[in-house]
Structures
1.
Amino acid sequence: MIAERKRLSSGLTVTSKVFVRSRNGGATKIVREHYLRNDIPCYSKLCNKCQLVLKPDANGELPQFILSESPLKLNSGSPHYVVLDTNIILHAIDLVENIDCFFDVIVPQTVLEEVKNRSFPIYQRIRSLVKSDEKRFVVFHNEFNEATHVSRMKDESSNDYNDRAIRKVAEWYNLHLNTNNNSTTPVRILFITNDKDNLSKAKAEGIDSMTLSEYVEDLPNADVLRDLIPTETSSFDNIKETSYPEYYNNSRIMGGVKNGTLYQGMLNISTYNFLEGSVQVAAFKKPLLILGTRNLNRAFNGDSVIVELLPKDKWREPSTTIVEESTVGADDNAEEEDQEETSIISDKERRVLAQDAIKASSAIAEGTTDNNKLQPTAKVVGIVRRSWRYYVGQIAPTSVSQDHDSGNSAKSCFVILMDKVLPKLRIRTRKAKELLGQRIVVAVDSWPSTSKYPQGHFVRCLGEIESAEAETEALLLEHNVEYRPFSKSVLDCLPAEGSNWTVPEDFGPKRKDLRDKLVCSIDPPGCVDIDDALHAKVLPNGNYEVGVHIADVGHFVKANTALDNEGASRGTSVYLVDKRIDMLPMLLGTNLCSLKPYVERFAFSVIWELDENANIVNIDYMKSVIKSREAFSYERAQNRIDDPSQNDELTQSMRVLLKLSKKLKQKRLDAGALNLASPEVKVHMDSETSDPGEVEIKKLLETNSLVEEFMLFANISVARKIYDAYPQTAMLRRHAPPPATNFETLNEMLAVRKPGMNISLESSKSLADSLDRCVDTKDPYFNTLLRIMSTRCMMAAEYFPSGSYGYPEFRHYGLAVDIYTHFTSPIRRYCDVVAHRQLAGAIGYENLDLSHRDKSKMDLIVKNINKRHRNAQFAGRASIEYYVGQVMRNNESEQEGYVIKCFNNGIVVLVPKFGVEGLIKLDVLGDINSAEFDEEKYELSFTDFAGKKRVVGVFDKVRVDVKSIKDEVTGKRKAQLVLK
């Protein structure tokens, strides 16, 4: 390679890298040119040079100078600007974002690119800081500035090259600003890095540099900020509690994955046994079991891991023992250092693993093992990608001693995380005692191989445990839901709040006027973000015209705007019991786009001509203008349809819709669509106090089904249209058939507990029919229970761009259709926004943005919205669980429940009335020593405290006392069930 630099007549400098590539005996010369400028500003208001020489751009605007003329002073008395290294942003982003720290910050382009490549979420956060005026962050394009561009030296690593480029920025700013300063006070340019090598080189080059800790200590508010500093591994160098196996190096991992001796997958930790994880890999039908902390080897739930298969004599069945993290290592001291190295495995863990191993070995030796139940086992040998995020928990009171009050030095303590499958976290803080009883946010920094527990640092306090505000924010953080207010740049994409936007008289020739149609909406009571509306009428030929009209969000949300980027990032709205976290600003969802009654609104319409049997005769797609005649709740619409005295045109049209929807549903069921179930409940809130009042199981009316059927119908029709137009990038949704192994345990339970019943998996039709046949005449609820348990055996549906799979794999198993998408809720789902744009392109209404015609970009979009959709579901369920707990708090009652799992030391019971399930451990059921677990019969026998012999098994109906208690370990309120 030959590097050259020359100046052009225009004043620009161009650097050229000349490569000679040899291939098949021939030589190819490759020239890569990089243009440098001498007019890139420093963005400081203190600089008189940049502000004088810069010229306006094509729009007549000058670059905005952001860095303050009166920057913050350190305790040492000097005003300063800060240049940040990559590691500071990656590991201390919460401190960088803190409103009490970091102002007038220079982010070199080199740093920004490194952050983008290593963590896109953190990149987005730093970009948000740059857009914010409050903290004054600027991106300096050092790689295009003639004075700061550096060429790569021979044999220099990319990391060393980047470090040198960043140091050059700090050096240049110091010289530039203190030469051209229009103030009498010199400004100090501080380079902040925690990289020891980079720090030592910076000091050797005369650059004013500090570690993050040194910088924070020199700030006036250091006392507030100290606990936010990420814990350096060196802070825990003296802790030698254990010795985890070291991870394999990259070359060994790459070679092992390539030759098939190592496997990559996502780790899932068992809800009932934190010592047991599983990794699904394509090479095995059953997941690989990871048993014990040594084999889990510091991996977190959700980590992408590399695993190595263990010998067949170590293959095991999944454990039948409940083991919770809180019962293992409960007496560990967070502050002890230089203690004698101990085994990773606790005595209790050793007993559990030994029992499972003895049972497996005996069965193998006697030839009585059921090979169908055996699962291959493995160990974690590497981490590809950590799932670490912000976690919520509480400080363990037992880890806070009296000496936490003494002195100003940080003391170690444990934080018990709300997610019980995660280990406790060791942090160092000066505020441990005042944080007791509070929900706190923490971040994980590292997990050294010599520490039994991961290390982290305190981020912020949410409030008192069990307060509604703290618990709601906690569940949003736990499920990674973005809930911060929309930024000014996002809101600026919309009409002003009080502008009273209306449909313009001239709405263009391509948009159809459908204001004469008898359109109405049918939604849950109190719905304000109305996505969809319908109409129907009888045609002269006896057929029916039916229209589904969807809010035209695309009219306001244009591709690649700040508003669109925010919607794409959030992915979906999140519905909690007491609030809604919007994907798009409220003005859009509840006003501009909402298909409210009596006002004109833009819509995207799908209109069919259907015959008497609901077969499609014709179909048309159009952007439209509609005027809804009425907004019904499900119950009000049902009452109006059922009232024989109501015979107006609108009511007649709803009756047509109901008649046709029943035929559509029957067609789906005949094709094999599944009718599954989940324990859905509704929490009623007091309208004045917002306190939870009562819980009831959701009631579904015919009008619920009416709306559902036509939304499904529209989604299927749109899917076909956009796939025809964009066969590689159409936004679709698929639902894969469940592997037979997913239903093995459930079918074994049925064979033993309900002889003659079984679930067939040949097709969705056979599954649906077999579920219909599983009826217990003595217990009407049993069929619903079985559908709930079957739902948990299914695969999750997912969004995908059409080019990712062959057409047969597009199939939506649960709906029994060959192709499907989401089109009907663009106010609350980003998938639907993309589908709208693709449909608009398919019908020639407008050109489709390139981002939705590029498969790699669509892959990124669907990856994010799949994750966001899943998180939103979990957050909604967690909200219901919290408020159900509040309802039950002072209302202990006896309820009917069903046993859904059996272990050798407890049972799990589902209570349909509240939609909750609770673990009842053996030690509260009766005499532990008298208990016997029959694994083949899925039943547990024991002597209760009254001396009575009892036997309970899966599917048994039981009576339980239900009350709400606070878990002393996690601080979460949970249902406590006591068997009657």
2.
Amino acid sequence: MNANTPPPLPSDGLAAALEAAGRDPVLPAETRDLLARAAIELRALAIDADAARSRYRALFDAVPDPVSILSEDGTVLDLNKAGIAAYRRPREEIVGRNIDFLNPDLPRDHMAPVWETLNRGETFVIEVTNMRADGSRFPVEVHSANFDFEGRKSIVAVARDLSQRGEAETRYRELMELIDVGILIQDMSGSFQYANSAALRMIGLRSGESLEDAMRLENWIPLREDGSQMPYDELPSVRCMRSGRIVESSLLGMYHRGRRQLTWISATVVPQYAPGASKPHQMLTLFSDVTHLKRNSTLFDRAQALAHIGGWEIDLGRDRVFLTDEALRILGPHEKPEGLVDVLACLREGERARFREALQRATDGGGFDLELQGMRANGEPFWVRVIGELETRQTASPYLTGTVQDITTDKRDEESLRVLARTDPLTGLLNRDAVLDALEERLADPAQAQIAVLYIDLDRFKTVNDALGHNAGDELLVRAARRIANAVGTEGLIARFGGDEFLVACDATGDPQQPERLAERILGAFADSFRFGKDEFAITASIGVAHAPQDGDRPQALIQNADLAMYDSKRRGRNGWQAFTPELARRQQDRLQIESQLRRAVDNDEFHLVYQPQVDLRFGRVVAAEALIRWQSHQLGELRPDLFISHAETTGDIVRIGQWVLREACRQVRAWQDQGLGIVRVAVNVSYRQFVGDELAERVRAVLDEFSLPGSALELEFTERVLIEDAPSTLRTFADLRALGVVLTIDDFGEGYSALNYLRRLPIHGLKLSQLFTEGVPNNRSDVAVCQAVSGIARSLGLGLVAEGVESEAQRQFLLGLGVPIGQGFLFAPGLSPDDFARRLREETPLDRLSNG
């Protein structure tokens, strides 16, 4: 028997039994006749039933679409040939299985809506995706109707293949655009391919914004039903993507970060299969906005509380106000507000008018988004963001609705960031930007414009920083800031302006002398030294004071002039204060002009050298010369060396100028030798900047080689500052220079550091006694004592000694008495031009002149 042969009917066995009984001789004849007729009738019925079944099967299999007979619970009772062909499975593999075996994407309880429709006497129609034996899918439209199958309440379902349905697709698209349900289509990577009009409206797509950008996950916070944040793996689309199965109605909240707006949706995600595919190629999400349905629900209130968002509605015509529980918590009124006046009472006075104006604008069709300040009933201040718009419902009076969000924490964070942005992180004082803003604000207000600025710079801060490291330097700045703050108190604004510089701005309206008194108090605060473990440092301050508006009516000008006064104070000896004056400004202008011209002086050939003879104090013979620089500026005229040398040191131009002096002096020595005057030793001053630069010895060697001079023709004079440079490179430089035969001398000995411990370690030849001391002898006891001490040091260390500034015979005699052999000064000659110096040499007899010094 094959699948198409009907099974034997029960009546066949019964007819055979009746025929057998009719042949039983024991029974009466009448009974046997009755049984024989019954058997004949049963045989006829069986033949009729068999014919009916054959007709049923023929008709059933003749239908070109798949036809299934289903039981009440969805079990397949029968399937026609078209169904077997469509599903590509044998009949016995399908019959007896539930219909979801062929339609795996059907939702749970899928038979309930079918029977609900059929019981009303209607035909149930649905579009689903059927699956073949190889897993490929094809879309069908299924029509279901009531059917009595062998006495059982059943369903006959006819499935029409929709794979070729061009016109139907167009109608489907039109329907998608017309229905008020959001529809999103994504590919299986999650990229958004399509959204209907309802979806775009609910998403809040802005003009010019793409769907993909609007739906970026970073723009949204998904929430579970309980209001907690939903993990990525729980998103309905992600679950559908990973399982390939339908994800039925899921309730979730979508909180938009930018708009701070929470929307609740109910979403169903359905995987969609292309004809012949075994895996879905896209997902269809259908969702509805159910926010209004959840306004008063517990879950909605909990989610609003978590997001600190409450809802409100105002009926302006009837002056009725509705607030959600979270909105009430945010505003914290004494009692639940009944009307607008009660809500306004929660706001600060100035904010009430803003809110009223916003409500009025909204009634004209506009929306509003405000940040307002208020005070809760318990006295606690708050910040809220209120968003509102006109409700579109048909009412007799304006009806407004919106949200209120607690942004107090955000505002406090903003204030903290603002304070941090205006505060120096090390000292806790105001920073540069903050004090500039404060000065700008005060100077713009005539009532506050009479202020003064104190520019404070720590003296010898670098000493601590270099000796103990940056951590000690930072600690010094913190402690110095504390001393300044204690000295100023509440009488001024204090800022760290940068590095070891501080700024104090104070009001000078009532007391013009207050800035100077503050300066004295600050200097007094630095009277005690700073201790770092066993080390103790005397750190003082130099202060410049400038008054507005006479010294500047803009922050930068006022600070610049205070800075200028501070540098003048530092130049005068430090640990003091100096008020700005027009004379300081003039000198500053002159300095800038000098520095500007100084940079071009070498290139413009504006420098020249004069040579002051160094003579034997006993016999007056010239033994050497010191090269002295002079500057004849094309723009500024003749400038004194003491005026421009310090500028050159500050700007660094001294290095280039010093190199020019070195080369020019050696060139001149070569010229004198070529004139037959012998090799005159010339002393050249070397700046500390030149000394710490790279390869001083190599540069000296190169110049000597250029002019074919021995090292003994050159004497280099260094300041006492090099004595504290106890670095290996210092000793190496001196050793290299001495190896060249160059004479090495410490200039103006006794004026500076006088580091005797280092003096005995350096390979030098001699000392120069400063004019500062020789000018007081023989009458000034202090100068006499210093000259005697220096002379003794030179004699004990075996060093040569040259006295500068010898201007009188009494000085010469005194120095000779001390044993000083060589001197220079106006007593013998000022600085001479090269020709005059050559003439002086020629005037001396050959026996008097020393060719090598």
3.
Amino acid sequence: MQFGNFKIIVLIFFFTSIGFSQTLEDQIYDAVDSFISNTNKKSLEILNGKEKDFSKKVKTFDEQLALVILYCNKGSFEMKNNLEKNAITTYEKAWKLFDKNKLSNYDIVEYCLKPLGTLYTKSGNFTLAENIIKKYIFIAEKEDNQTTIISGYINLSIVYKSIGKYQTAIDLLQKVAKNKAVSSLQNKRIQEELAVNFLGLKKFENANQLLKKSNENNYQSLKSKSFLELQKNNPKEAISYFENAKTYFFKTNNFTAREVAKMYMDEASLYLFLKDDTKAKNLLSKALQTLLPLEKNMTLPKKNSLYAENTFLAIFDVLAQLETNSQKKIDYYNLSFYVSDLIKDNIASQESLIIQQFDDRKRTEKCLETFWNEYQKTNEDSWIEKAFLFAEKSKSVVLKEKNQLKTLLELHPKNKDLLVQNQLTSQQEKLINKLIRLQITGENPNEIETINSELASISMELKSYNEKIQKQFKNDIQKQFRLSDLFDKIENDKAQLVYFFWGNESVYEFQIIDGKIIWNQIKIDGSFASNLKNFIHFFDNASVINNDINLFTKTSFQLFENLKISALQKDKNTIIIPDGLLNFVSFDALVTQKTTSKNYSKVPFLVFQNKLAYQTNATFYIENIPREKQNTIVGFFPVFENTNAELMYSKEEAKALQSLKAKLFMNENASKENFIKNCSKYNILHVSTHGTSGTFNEPATLVFYDELLLIQELYALENCHPQLVVLSACETGIGKLQKGEGAISIARAFQYAGAENILFSLWKINDYATAQLMTNFYKNFEKTNSFFESNYLSKMDYLQNEEISNAKKSPYYWSSFVYYGSIDVEENNYFYYLLFGGILIIILLLIYGRNSRFFKREKIQKDKV
């Protein structure tokens, strides 16, 4: 009887437990149904509370799927109600849960991935947008869902359009238009998008033909027709088309607040073109009211009411342009910068962050122009200081963030969040490297899709860790740059500084000499641009300068004057912080006065006047404080003997390192694997090989004995923080120029990985001259223990070497190498020794004199007695 009762109790417990499991699934669906039946902010709060509880309990397939459906419905509501950041997080949760647990029986593409891709595009996270869209295109291809494939490619073209890759978008749209499964509605959308992209390329006739052919009268096509009429100088027709577009827009019930705001923004752009500023301002105010319905002050909204939304950037930038009061103008730009920073907080890839900087740089130039105009009126130094701070904030944002992570890791080496963030960043770069290699070869499309999916997952994880770290280390991360720190560092280095900001219309130059800051504006007119490009092209190959030395020295001197650096004090350490095309200029080779000399040793090059060091930005210069050197050296010398790529003089470089007891990897031992294994174990890393600067489609590379090392593999290096990297290879400082970030080069990749100082080349270097310079560098390093001093002396020794012919003393041969790093000259203690010795002698003489007088007095007293 007791046993029977026990069995009943067990059965009751078993079925009850099943009931509880089923009840959890039902509870989730009941919560979803309740929310859908009454969607508002209050019901959203209730759903949020339940979601947290559900997420801790779900275990079975059905429970997990129910939670995915809850997330998708919640994300849809958030997306439609201007809660886009929340919507992104919600959709990401849905996708992670669905993908991790290999769930099925739900259209995850339609209800999660499509809106998530759209949200990433809207929020400026273009790399993630591309990855997610490619992911759902791949899923659709597996299922042969042609409708989704076509809409996916259209959405992908919008990503490319958003980042200014209009031709890439056109190529994609024209390709997908050939798909026989394209519906009439999709075809209309393709034609509209093609027209918009042609307008972006200013191919107005192509756009006009497409719009005539489609003969559609929806919002997008009518807006495009309005813009075309403006180009034809038909303002009445332009306004008429836009009024029709607006009418059509409001007829559709399915629009969000964001879309309404963008429509007002488009209309404001029309009136700006027609120079009706009053009408434009009113429309911009309407756009703001739409995005900020609870904000009372539309003149200058409070920062805490703003959120990560690209439309704000357009609104505030235009309001700033229309403003005549300088302070109000800057206030609007500051709001744009604030929103831009909010957007960047949600971005977890280098590429997207660099793209996001483009508009920040344009904005910064507008601010500098405002400050310059005020400075011309008032001559007050406060405007210079403000301008410098704005310029510095826009410099090398991605590199600064990576360097900040390195610093935080050094301060908190056991912090789990920092360690995971660092690992995820490294994994991300490794995957990008794999992806690029596969794209170059065109192999394994399935693996490409897998990598895109992994990249999306890693980026989502990185975003969450970035948020955690932002909260944990808020004070460290938000530490403000101070000009006083810069002045102190310059004084300690007994130096002077020249700092450039390259804009679209002007180069702004700041010179800090003897504790004073001088500000110059250099207009990028035809004369300056032509002279700069001519100077750079003199270094295309070894013969160009030698063929016309007079023309070179004349061009070089003109550039010296253009750059207004004649105020530099002679025989003083000089730091150059270049920007834009100036990244490709070796300032050593500038000629400081007119000359007719063809003897290079007597040409007045800047190198004879000043010792130069470069830096990427002022923050790096301040933070790069010389440390005690360990001088453990590793060198990689593939040499490539008996091949067309043989580096005959590379062995001479190796000999220079041998005297410093360096670990050398020669010939086949100079493999990529050995490089990756050993680069983090030594304080000085020397690489003597071939290098490429890359092309628009292919990345920069270093060539090892067995294979190429792509730039992304350098980004992925962990714990590689040498005190010096010497890149004895061609074009290691050359790469695609990105506004604000500089050249995306091999040298920058080493900086990204954590190198403190770096010596690299700006063009295709000569094997013989490089061997001479490197030999000189290490001989001088043995004597001085200074990277900065050794770089300078290596060039002096080369130019003063009588065994080297005059032709080989062309700056093409010796000025290629630039040193980005600290002024690490050790104090010369001889003065102090002499001073101490002199004081000691004086003290001894005084003691001796005192004693002599004492003994004389004693003798006199004795004599008296």
